[in-house]
TrEMBL record:
Protein source organism: Daucus carota subsp. sativus
Protein name: Serine incorporator
Membrane topology, from the record: Multi-pass membrane protein
Protein family membership: Belongs to the TDE1 family.
Superkingdom classification of source: Eukaryota
Subcellular location per the Swiss-Prot or TrEMBL entry: Membrane
One Pfam family in the UniProt entry: Serinc
GO cellular component: membrane
TM stretches of this protein: 57-74, 103-122, 143-164, 170-193, 205-231, 237-258, 265-283, 307-327, 348-371, 391-410
Length: 419
């Protein structure tokens, strides 16, 4: 299609056909040009959006590789780092570059990489901005930066690594809070999706069936924990953990059915299953030396169950970080702003922030939230520190969920009081 003044020439696909000339006014030519440019821009936005969506999986792979490197450094690092005695920061026989210190070094390298990406993409909001290019492309350069970050962490003094370990505890706690809020928002959305509406009776029945299923699973979980981890009165701490979890379950169910709340049983059922899982996970983290702990029957060998559980735990870390990172809309203050075609599909700065905190989180899991005591091979998140972190996380989750249920009533009471 050619433009000559106000004449548009169109050549048909048939080679024997003539060239047809159509006379258009200047305004019509301008509108035609704008329509063509708009279509071209829309196609470019679609391509950039697909690249952005694919990029997040690449970052997830980088994060997974870093987790595997941290595990290898912790359990088998002495084979490699014993030869790095010439690196002053690694200390005698490289002891400061493997085991727990090695995990913290790998975590620091991962943190530095994602923090660099955070700075490079901060405040990016449009697909045509340079931040989108830095987020979605230049992968050879990014892998080089990631590799340099990991190597640089080997030369960081041990005193600074110890300080980073203390900071990582706080960062891991922030990550748990973000993850918890994301989970609760997802549960709320799912409950809204299955809320009974007119012409959607099938959803109502299916939602009721799923809520019943979640509550049955939760009660079965409570019973299994009593039978496995509270065998005698001497297991008083486990009895307290399980009993308090059952009480929280009943309180959430009662609040959901309260007439002024009336939120249905599905969300509370899902939340009940979640806190039961957290309680079970906390008890499973108790040290092997405890007679009521879940690890008491372990033989300490690398059997296939411990290896499989360890690999599943690593995949869970990656999935938790990934899902929280792309859930930036949950943490936006203005959630009702209309989305434009050239808007980025998720907030890049928040995405890299979550992965930076995730680097601190996986470090704490690998060292069981303890900077001093040793760890065993193929183990993760085992020890009293890990147990109490999970229990507090469970109680905090129940508190946030209950507040989310009663906050509309409290706000309405304040409004009525002012009137």
């Amino acid at each position: 299609m050619d433009e000559e003044g106000q004449v548009i020439k169109i050549r048909l696909s048939d080679p024997e056909a003539r060239v047809i000339e159509i006379k258009l006014s200047n305004s019509e030519v301008t509108l035609l040009r704008e329509h063509y440019l708009a279509q071209q821009k829309s196609i470019e936005c679609l391509v950039k959006r697909k690249k952005s969506q694919r990029a997040r999986y690449s970052y997830g792979i980088i994060f997974l590789l870093t987790n595997l490197i941290a595990w290898a450094v912790r359990d088998y690092g002495q084979i490699v780092f014993s030869d790095l005695h010439y690196v002053k920061a690694c200390g005698i026989e490289g002891r400061s570059c493997y085991q727990k210190m090695g995990v913290l070094r790998v975590s620091l390298g991962c943190f530095m990489f994602f923090f660099i990406m955070l700075l490079a993409t901060f405040k990016t909001s449009k697909l045509y901005e340079g931040g989108n290019l830095r987020h979605s492309e230049w992968w050879a350069l990014k892998f080089l930066i990631w590799f340099i970050s990991l190597v640089t962490s080997l030369f960081v003094p041990s005193s600074f690594i110890q300080l980073y370990g203390e900071v990582a505890r706080v960062g891991a706690g922030v990550f748990l809070i973000l993850q918890l809020i994301s989970v609760i928002e997802f549960i709320t959305w799912w409950n809204t999706y299955w809320t009974p509406e007119e012409r959607k009776k099938q959803r109502c029945f299916l939602g009721l069936f799923m809520s019943t299923l979640f509550y049955i699973a939760s009660m079965c979980g409570i019973g299994v924990m009593y039978s496995l981890y509270a065998l005698s009165a001497s297991c008083s701490l486990n009895i307290f953990f399980i009993t308090w979890t059952a009480i929280l379950l009943l309180v959430m169910m009662a609040m959901s059915l309260y007439s002024k709340v009336n939120r249905g049983l599905l969300s509370s059922g899902i939340m009940a299953s979640y806190i039961v899982f957290l309680c079970w996970s906390a008890i499973r983290s108790e040290p092997a030396s405890e007679k009521c702990g879940a690890q008491r029957q372990g033989n300490g060998h690398d059997d296939w169950t411990s290896i499989l559980g360890f690999l599943i735990a690593i995949c869970s870390i990656v999935m938790a970080t990934f899902s929280t990172g792309i859930d930036s809309k949950t943490f936006q203050f203005r959630k009702n702003e209309p989305e434009v075609k050239d808007d980025i599909p998720y907030q890049y700065g928040f995405f890299h922030l979550v992965f930076s905190l995730g680097a601190m989180y996986f470090a704490m899991l690998f060292i069981s939230w303890n900077l001093s005591s040793p760890t065993t091979k193929w183990s993760m998140d085992v020890g009293w520190a890990s147990t109490w972190v999970k229990i507090v996380n469970e109680w905090f989750a129940a508190t946030i969920y209950l507040w989310k249920l009663i906050s509309p009533i409290v706000k309405q009471g304040r409004v009525d009081g002012k009137k």
